[in-house]
Amino acid sequence: MQLKLKAHAKINLTLKVLGKRSDGYHQLETIMQSLELHDELTIEQRKEGIELSVQGAVPAGRDNLAYRAAEVIKRYTRCSKGCFIYLVKRIPVAAGLAGGSTDAAAVLLGLNKLWDLGLTKQELLQLAEKLGADVPFCLWGGTALARGKGEELTPLPGAPEMGVVLVKPHFGVSTAEVYRGWAGACLGERPDTAAMIAALQQGSIAGIAKNLANDLEYVTLQMHPQLQEIKEAVKKAGADGVLMSGSGPTIFGLTDSEEQAREIAGRLKIPGARVIATATLS
Ligand code: ATP
Question: N or C: lower Cβ tally within 10 Å for the chain?
């Protein structure tokens, strides 16, 4: 038996850091949105063991979050079956787009089905939480408010269909390093979560664009000042609103349609950067 799965990327429409917790994580309040852009996973049942093969620039063994997800669910259920996972990476890596987290979530959902484990939503969420802060959101995606480390999820009204232009510069950033650089102060505009939720409820692209804000943006922008130039270029090319996703360094621009996102992506000339046109996914 074989399963084919799409593991979707995400962006953060707002990201507010509320403080540092005693367990080393940060207390967050963030609105996450799934994108059409996805990795592809094929999972086949095997008699025993876990094997992962990857097309793309990420590790194929235990260091891969997809592999760790298979280990975690196998251990939890004491399942004796095995699997072969083939992962095709299309989401830029170390980009703030939850690439590894979404692969892990897809493996949890896929093996629950393939191995006929019957885990509940709650059990899957608990396993997801062990794997990383963004994994719980990636299990069901859509549009959601995440609190705590990211595991306390509240579904939100789906964002209207919007085009999204992504610009991933040639370098990646370490999420841990960006959080270390967060000093508690914020130079930019503070995210207004309630205003973003109201804009989502109204289905207003202008309202969503106006309320885009990320407390971590100034940290990553200080490390990589060229991100400011990228933001300006995306805005100038015609995006309604522009922001850095997660801990970065990907900059995204929202547009009224995917077609407009493609036009803007075609116009942007940013040396070394990967420019992708995609859309929101409800
Ligand atoms: P997030 O938005 O959740 O912080 P990210 O998009 O910033 O995630 P990832 O693409 O998940 O970052 O990559 C972070 C690190 O995880 C990289 O150094 C990469 O080598 C490693 N990694 C392990 N497994 C994967 C995977 N399946 N896909 C991508 N990266 C992976």
Answer: N
